[in-house]
Structure formats: structure tokens, C-alpha cells
Amino acid sequence: MECRFAWDEGRYPTMSPLKDIVSNIHGLVAKIEDDMKVRASEYNTVRSQLNAINRKQTGSLAVRDLSDMVKEEDIITTEHLETLLAVVPKYSQKDWLSSYETLTQYVVPRSSKKLHEDNEYALYTVTLFKKMADNFKVAAREKGFQASDSFSFALPPFRLCMREFEHSAEVQDTRKQELQKLVQDQDAMRSSLLQWCYSSYGELA
User: Fold this and answer.
1) What is the C-alpha R_g of the chain?
2) For 122-136, how does the pLDDT look when each residue is reduced to its tens digit (9 = 90+)?
3) Which CATH number fits domain 72-166: 2.40.50.140, 2.40.30.10, 3.40.190.10, 3.30.70.100?
């Protein structure tokens, strides 16, 4: 279907001075551009938030959300005991298992359990007295694990990554609801933005 140009006589009367017509057109274009910037910024903000959540769900154990990997029974929290989570490079797991009990005092022997493993890291628990938790975290972060391959080629040292985690069904439900809302907001804003573009830029055609 052929689309023919038609001058909007009602908005831009041909009897008006040319400078007034040009000024009106420039004003309309500027307003549309300003509106576009605001709408695009709002959409990109929601999209960035959603991408950040998705990265946490699909990234390595060092950064991803752990709520779907750690069960309530994996965590011990009493008046005196606390369970911490350690992200250990895969090739340093033997070093971790042989040394975690000596990183500080009052670590529960044989308390470390592997919960999950990806291509780079393994997620372990460790239980100890609460009063030693901070000391353990410091010692764990300072602990360098030197790795080498079968040819004794020295690799750069890697450090333990201690992950902060608090198991809460309520928090997990809240996060799921937030994710669903962001997905819905993104879809609604994208649809609204496209409709606005068709309508607004159609006036300039």
C-alpha cells in the first residue's frame, strides 16, 4: 500500500510565517526526543535490574544467588554454633578439606560438606563456634591455594571466597515475587514504548 505525504494544515497552517512553522516543528521534535529519553531510561533501568538478577542466577558460585542450592538443614545456627559458606576453586578442594579445621580455633571437625559444584568452584559448608566466625573469615580470605598441573607449572594463587548467606523462606519468596514483577514490568514497558514510538514518530513522517 502506497503511503503518500499529506501536510497537516491544521497543525501547521501554510498561511503562517515560515519561521513559525519551523519553530513549531522543532518544538515537536524536541519534545518527542525528551520523552523518548525518559521512557528509554526507565525501560533500560528495569532491564538492567533484570539482567543483574539473571546473572546472579546463572553466574559462577562466587557471585550467583545461593538460595536454591542451600537447604535449611544445611545451615546450623544455635546460641553458640554457626555455619559458614565457602566457595573453593575446584582444583583446591583437597587443600580446603585438609586445612579448614586449622584456619582458626573451635572449628567443628569434619563439618565441611560440599553442597554444589560448577565448572570453576565448589560450595562447602563449615560449622564453628560463633565467636570465631570473623577470625575464620579473615583467615580463609588470606589463605592462598597454590595450584599446579601435571607438569608442575605454577599457577597464580587463588583465594577462598566466603559467601554471606542467611536462609529464609520469606526472603526467597520475596525475591521470586520481585523477579516476576520485573519481568512483567519489562514486558509492559517495552510494549508501551513501542506503541508510543509508532504514535509519536508517525507524526513526524
Assistant:
1) 29
2) 999 999 999 998 898
3) 3.30.70.100
Q: Mapping DSSP to helix (H, G, I), strand (E, B) and coil, where does residue 68 land?
A: coil
User: Each residue of 65-80: b (16+ CB within 10 Å) or e?
Assistant: bbbeebeeeebeeeee
Q: What is the phi-psi region of residue 125: left when phi exceeds 0, alpha when psi lies from -120 to 50, beta otherwise?
A: beta
For residue 135, count other CB atoms closer than 10 A to its CB. Answer: 15
Pick the CATH number of 1-65+168-205 from 1.20.58.100, 1.10.1380.10, 1.20.1460.10, 1.10.520.20: 1.20.1460.10
110-161 tens-digit pLDDT: 999 999 998 888 999 999 999 998 898 888 877 753 322 222 223 233 345 6
Nearest alpha-carbon partner for 117 in 94, 138, 78, 90: 90
How far apart are the C-alpha atoms of 9 and 2, rounded to whole Å?
21
SS (H, E, C) 105-160: CCECCCCCEEEEECCCEEEEEEEEEHHHHHHHHHHHHHCEECCECCCCCECCCEEC
* Alpha carbons 122 and 93: distance in angstroms, whole number: 8
Q: Which amino acid is at 22?
A: V
